[in-house]
Amino acid sequence: MKITDYLTSLNARLAEGHTSEHTFRGDLEALIRSLLPEFHVTNEPSQVTDCGNQAYVITKGSNQ
User: Fold this and answer.
1) pLDDT tens-digit readout, 27-64
2) Are 22 and 8 in contact (CB under 8 A)?
3) Is the torsion defined by CA of 22, 27, 33, 36 positive or negative?
4) How many whole angstroms separate alpha carbon 6 and alpha carbon 18?
């Protein structure tokens, strides 16, 4: 995904008028995957920390 495609998608979703943070996560994940193809992206990882869950965990190699 190109950055221009990402921005076009965000604008289209915003124009629909009923969005939340989660509305945009799929587009962001696709952008991250295209920019960092050698990394593994996990949306909503299961590891809960004392300050909540991260939106994404990005790992490389054996850290998956």
Assistant:
1) 999 999 999 999 999 888 887 677 777 888 899 976 55
2) no
3) negative
4) 18
